[in-house]
């Protein structure tokens, strides 16, 4: 009897090796689950904490140039000599940037290596201007953008227009909002579009159109993910590996702490093998009523967002700017939920502006918070970030404001604002300095920032 029962039992299942994926017939779906656990990546969030200072710097710098017009020079590298009264800059910051009365002065004091406060020798008023180090960083970025103008910038703009089939045209105002991410100059409408009439056409209704040219490289419509896929397949091809697994695959790296279950692995494996059309291909005439076609179009939308981020200088942009190209890329209306579905490819950071700003990163382009393939524009922008990250303790603020006399009162505006800022940065109001704030003053050391300007 026992022998008969044993004969009727099914044979035991073979043990699955560690790291192997279960059989594909375990799951019938080829789509990644909609609801996933959202895991923060501190490496990307740390980048946005630095970018918060960079955005505030550029906002105040733009107000400085606006307040100094028409005496402000056109080139950013020579703007260190431009100075305006702090009272005017503070009023503009409160009215246009909606800053609190003390926020502008507090930011200037915390970044004394970027902005220099001094008492004007003629007007006897508190003035503000850039330090030579900050002006040099802005000049380096302007030089890097100008150096990339003939080749790389034109190529990036042409590939961006190709991402909008079938007409291959985009609104000029949308490209203008994305110009800094693409490494384009502020006057790109004249220096790039109108300067190349054989490559671009500016329509009267405000669109920029792509014009084919015999000088275009043959790989103009080859996506970045295709190049990365081919390079990875050639370098890491294992004996017996299936080429089908890498033909339509994306580089995926989930954030630390992301839980990957068995069925999720199966869904990702099936999604990686799912064919899709190139983001540069025209799919307007395809029949998209079937469920399989919709899944392929969703993967094509992932490839389109991947390609747009690959065209940016720092492989990131804001979600709000990305939404401007939603129709051209074929992305669903709920773009945030769509990108959160693919956390192994993209990362959305909400740091830097009290959750009001969403920045989309291309995960594969970064490693431990650093850009894997840096460029000249990114290197120039890093110089400005380094200036803004220098501690204010290394700037001799006490010596600077002693030479200015009544500068603290003007910096704080009306009321007790000046004494509040002085207590915050130099002491407690009774002569006692905060620990570490006056190390440079007591030791006689000087960073050289304010001594270049004190009259």
Automatic annotation (TrEMBL):
Residues 419-437 have a biased composition (Basic and acidic residues). Residues 411-455 are annotated as: Disordered. One of its GO terms (molecular function) is RNA binding. Residues 439-448 have a biased composition (Acidic residues). It comes from the Eukaryota. Residues 39-388 form the PORR domain. InterPro entries: PORR_domain, PORR_fam. PANTHER family: PROTEIN ROOT PRIMORDIUM DEFECTIVE 1 (PTHR31476:SF9), PROTEIN WHAT'S THIS FACTOR 1 HOMOLOG, CHLOROPLASTIC (PTHR31476). This is PORR domain-containing protein. It comes from Sorghum bicolor (Sorghum).
């Amino acid at each position: 009897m026992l022998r008969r029962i044993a004969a009727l039992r099914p044979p035991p299942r073979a043990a699955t090796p560690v790291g192997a994926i279960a059989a594909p017939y375990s799951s019938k779906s080829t789509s990644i689950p909609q609801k996933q656990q959202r895991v923060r990546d501190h490496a990307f969030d740390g980048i946005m904490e630095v970018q918060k200072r960079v955005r505030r710097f550029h906002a105040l710098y733009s107000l400085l140039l606006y307040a100094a017009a028409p005496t402000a020079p056109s080139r950013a590298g020579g703007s260190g000599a431009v100075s305006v009264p702090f009272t005017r800059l503070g009023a503009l910051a409160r009215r246009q940037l909606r800053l609190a009365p003390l926020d502008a002065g507090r930011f200037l004091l915390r970044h004394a290596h970027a902005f220099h406060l001094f008492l004007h020798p003629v007007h006897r008023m508190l003035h503000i201007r850039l330090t030579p180090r900050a002006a040099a960083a802005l000049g380096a970025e302007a030089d890097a953008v100008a150096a990339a103008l003939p080749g790389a910038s034109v190529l990036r703009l042409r590939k961006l227009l190709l991402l909008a089939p079938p007409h291959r045209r985009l609104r000029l105002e949308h490209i203008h909002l994305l110009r800094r991410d693409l490494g384009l100059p502020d006057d790109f409408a004249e220096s790039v579009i109108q300067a190349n009439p054989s490559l671009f056409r500016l329509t009267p209704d405000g669109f920029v159109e792509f014009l084919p040219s015999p000088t275009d490289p043959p790989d103009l419509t080859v996506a970045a993910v295709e190049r990365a896929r081919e390079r990875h397949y050639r370098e890491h091809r294992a004996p017996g590996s299936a080429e089908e697994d890498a033909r339509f695959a994306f580089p995926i790296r989930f954030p630390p702490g992301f839980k990957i279950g068995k069925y999720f692995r199966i869904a990702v494996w099936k999604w990686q093998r799912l064919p899709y059309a190139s983001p540069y291909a025209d799919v307007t005439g395809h029949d998209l009523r079937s469920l399989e076609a919709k899944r392929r179009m969703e993967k094509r939308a992932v490839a389109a967002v991947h390609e747009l981020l690959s065209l940016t200088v720092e492989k990131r942009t804001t979600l709000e700017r990305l939404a401007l190209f939603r129709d051209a890329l074929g992305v669903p209306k709920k773009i945030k939920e769509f990108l959160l579905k693919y956390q192994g490819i993209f990362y959305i950071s909400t740091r830097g502006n009290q959750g009001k700003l969403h920045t989309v990163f291309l995960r594969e382009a970064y490693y431990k918070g650093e850009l894997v393939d840096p460029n000249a524009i990114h290197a120039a922008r890093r110089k400005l970030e380094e200036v803004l990250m220098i501690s204010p303790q290394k700037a001799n603020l006490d010596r600077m404001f002693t030479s200015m006399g009544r500068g603290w009162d003007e910096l704080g505006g009306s009321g007790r604002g000046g004494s509040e800022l002085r207590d915050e940065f130099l002491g407690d109001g009774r002569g006692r300095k905060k620990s570490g704030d006056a190390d440079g003053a007591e030791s006689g050391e000087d960073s050289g920032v304010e001594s270049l300007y004190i009259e």
